[in-house]
Design a protein that fits this description.
The chain is an alpha+beta fold. About 35% of the residues lie in helices and about 30% in strands.
Length: about 180
């Protein structure tokens, strides 16, 4: 199976991200799949996804011209644009050790048929290469109940910065150096 990795460049690729996102939102994934496969918390629209991509392009994995995985790049200037993520940005700013020159990985998702094939790791490798000239750290947060995602992030080298609670959920704020 030949997968290609790169940055989102077209409206069709952004639409592919949104299509994959809709299939994996917490609200539509069964309880069994949430526990076993993980889930997404935030739903984006094409406008904000495009604005984010214009600032720092999202990284995608494609198979047969279809988006099968992605990591969203979110410049800190978008910290107020998505209400559910505002507490994360406040936590980053409040860290004892200030993190300078960071980019937020706003969401990662791999199509169910492509999980377990190393796509997650390759998406992050590609993202690191794409952002390393401008940012020293990739930061994201993971719902504490999303153990599949937590384990995957720690397996590719993320380390815990802090935990916090917002919107009735516990979150792990994690970081990955870009070099």
């Amino acid at each position: 199976m030949q997968l290609t990795y790169g940055i989102a460049q077209t409206t069709e690729e952004l639409a592919g991200i949104l299509s994959l996102q809709k299939k994996n939102l917490r609200a539509v994934v069964s309880n069994e799949d949430r526990e076993k496969e993980g889930f997404l918390t935030v739903s984006h629209n094409l406008q904000i996804l495009t604005e984010m991509n214009n600032s720092c392009p999202h990284v995608i994995a494609k198979h047969a011209n279809q988006v099968v995985g992605y990591t969203l790049c979110m410049h800190p200037k978008f910290g107020d644009k998505i209400p559910v993520l505002r507490p994360m940005f406040r936590e980053i700013e409040a860290l004892d050790k200030k993190v300078e020159k960071y980019i937020v990985m706003g969401q990662v998702c791999i199509d169910k048929d492509y999980r377990g094939l190393g796509v997650f790791r390759k998406l992050y490798e590609t993202m690191r290469q794409q952002v390393s000239s401008s940012f020293t750290t990739i930061i994201t947060e993971v719902d504490a109940t999303n153990t599949r995602s937590l384990n995957a992030h720690y397996a590719v080298g993320f380390s815990l910065l802090t935990t916090h609670r917002s919107h009735g959920q516990d979150w792990h704020l994690v970081a990955l150096p870009t070099t």
